[in-house]
Amino acid sequence: MTAPLVIIAVRGEPAGQGNLRTGPKHGKAYHANSKDLSPWRERVRGAALDVLGAHEFRPPTGEDRRLALPCDECGTYRTQHATLLGPVRLEAVVTVRRLKSVTAKWPVTRSSSDWDHYARAICDALTGVIYVDDSQIIDGRVITTYPHVHQHALGEPGAVIRIWNGGA
Ligand SMILES: [Zn+2]
Question: ∠ CA(144), CA(46), CA(109), 5° rounding?
């Protein structure tokens, strides 16, 4: 297997994304665990920007944001403002905390989120950094594990995300 193009190591409690609740006002949907989800997504995004030496798309100030104007910092248009513009392959090994009372080798209790919810959080966090749109991911895999169990598990909660050019 070819070496990944990018390896992103993220420290912190992983949070899943997917359970939506409807707010008491205006019936607006929000993430049931946004208190945990937002900081986790920020850490994933920050780790990706750091490893790439990249920056967030910055719309020109004082301009109408509805106009498709290039990034104020680098002159790249939003539709091109990412590392990969073609197909992407992504694998994430998510290390979740093992409570002292848990003796099972694998995170199969309700204390962790579902693999697809972890996938959703990570894939959204990397949009506009690794790829322009997460529809570019043609091949994705998420593995949940406890510290030191899987080959790519961390020693503490977090994730190791490996990215390949999916068209290669
Ligand atoms: Zn830019």
Answer: 20
Q: From ligand 1's centre to the CA of 62, what distance in Å? A: 17
Least Cα distance to 130 among 166, 82, 163 occurs for 82
Would residue 100 count as lying in a domain? yes
Token look-up 């967030």 returns 56
Domain count, the chain: 1
Mean pLDDT of the chain: 89
Paired residues of 165 in beta bridges: 88
Q: Which domain holds residue 128?
A: 6-165
pLDDT in tens, 28-66: 777 778 889 999 999 999 999 999 999 999 988 766 666
Q: From ligand 1's centre to the CA of 82, what distance in Å?
A: 9
* CATH number for position 66: 3.30.1330.70
Classify burial at 32, counting beta carbons within 10 Å of its beta carbon; exposed 0-12, middle 13-18, buried 19 or more.
Answer: middle
CA of 152 to the centre of ligand 1 (A): 32
Distance 23 CA to ligand 1 centre (A): 35
Q: How far is the CA of 112 from the centre of ligand 1 (A)?
A: 36
